[in-house]
Amino acid sequence: MSYFRELQATIDDLADPHRGILAADESSGTIAKRFETVGAENTEDNRRWYRDMLFSAPEVGKYLSGIILFEETLNQTDTHGTPFPELIVNQGMVPGIKVDLGKGSLPGASGDMISYGLDGLADRLATYRERGARFAKWRSVYPITDHNPTPLGLSANAEVLARYAAECQAAGIVPIVEPEVLIDGNHSMMRAARVNEHVWHSVFHALHQHGVTLEHMILKPSMVTPGKAIGKASPDEVAEATLNSLLRTVPAAVPSINFLSGGQTPTEATANINAINQHGTRAPWLLSISFARALQEPALEAWGGKPENHDRAQAAFLKRARLNSLALQGEYSEDMENR
Ligand code: 5MM
Predict the structure, then answer these.
(1) How many whole angstroms separate alpha carbon 197 and alpha carbon 248?
(2) Please, what sign has the CA dihedral across residues 187, 251, 1, 128?
(3) Is 220 a catalytic residue?
(4) What is the DSSP string of 52-71?
């Protein structure tokens, strides 16, 4: 059975020049770390409550086209008993699902990682689809050191990402392909650019070999920045380096590139995507976002684990979503943070 029309409809709904994608797919371990920073207890009810607060924010669908969920959230309901995927659709957005099952070290490639979850993926995708997921996300993680990623790390992760993407399209689900090159380390911006180019080149080679339709996928890459220990580059420098590397390696058939924030502060990430859009007016793809931390951090802080802060947290979340929407047009400026 061909899902061509369905995949195209999902791309049409997700790839919107004014709207990004929220990554709310933190696994239980990751959300525990996020909650800990604001003193919130990591219970199932708190996770449900917190995500309900985000997804039900008034008119959030003006700024976001889709939300990536963790499996637990796909099966939960809001306070009125509406399943989260239905709430997301009612808010004018598309529900998606993270399908990798975490990562570990890659034997034979010291320092490299590999993500798990291909076994049984077709069955899981069929179940997720029944529950309303129309797109999926898989993250592969690449640390940068003097020796990493190794050639084996590059080829093994590219292969896994391509097999995942092909399984998704065969199941009528749009794959977001996320090769995250980590910001940790003391590497130069030049080295980050070269590593990202190697990664994207290897991923698109594997996607081609596995017959993945590039028109029906989204790339979720890191921005090209220097290692965290080196300091920050300006938004213009990040934009220029990121666009140069993407233009060398990512085919024009890909409809949308939705960056992760990777540990950047919320304002830094917004300024960077703003500059990317200002510099990228002739890029062949949409240049958008799929942030987790950079969209959620102010809301998490405003909430602080206290239900009475519901409206403050929603306002903080909507502000970040709105400013990022402006940044997708290259219309954000730092003074908007204080208005
Ligand atoms: C890199 O992480 C993804 C984007 O988030 P940031 O914008 O904060 O960098 C994110 O979707 C990530 O994959 C999820 O938070 C899930 O992480 P875990 O480690 O729980 O699978």
Answers:
(1) 7
(2) positive
(3) yes
(4) HHHHTSTTGGGTEEEEEE-H
Distance between Cα 17 and ligand 1 center (Å): 22
pLDDT tens digits for range 293-307? 999 999 999 999 999
Hey, what are 20's tokens?
């990004």
Mutate to test the pocket of ligand 1, among 261, 296, 300, 320 (most ligand atoms within 8 A of CB): 261
Candidates 109, 190, 216; CA nearest to 154 is 109
Å from CA of 2 to ligand 1 middle: 31
From the list 157, 184, 210, the residue with the least C-alpha distance to 262 is: 184
- Give the residue from 77, 83, 115, 80 showing the smallest Cα distance to 99: 115
Assigned CATH for 4-338? 3.20.20.70
Active-site option among 26, 178, 240, 297 = 178
210-246 b/e (C-beta count within 10 Å ≥ 16 → b)? bebbbebbbbbbbbbbbbbebeebebebbbbbbbebb
Encoded amino acid at 281, one letter: T
Mark whether 215 is an active-site residue: no
180 lines ligand 1 (CB under 6 A): yes
Q: Which residue is catalytic, options 137, 159, 180, 220?
A: 220
Q: What is the tens place of the pLDDT at every residue in 133-189? A: 999 999 999 999 999 999 999 999 999 999 999 999 999 999 999 999 999 999 999
Question: What pLDDT does residue 87 have?
Answer: 98
Is the CB of 262 inside a 6 Å radius of any atom of ligand 1?
yes
Helix or strand holding residue 286 (H, E): strand 286-289
Nearest residue by C-alpha to atom 11 in ligand 1: 23
Helix, strand, coil: what percent of the chain each, to 5?
50, 15, 35
For the chain, which residues make up each domain, given as ranges?
4-338
Q: Is 23 in the pocket of ligand 1 (CB under 6 A)?
A: yes
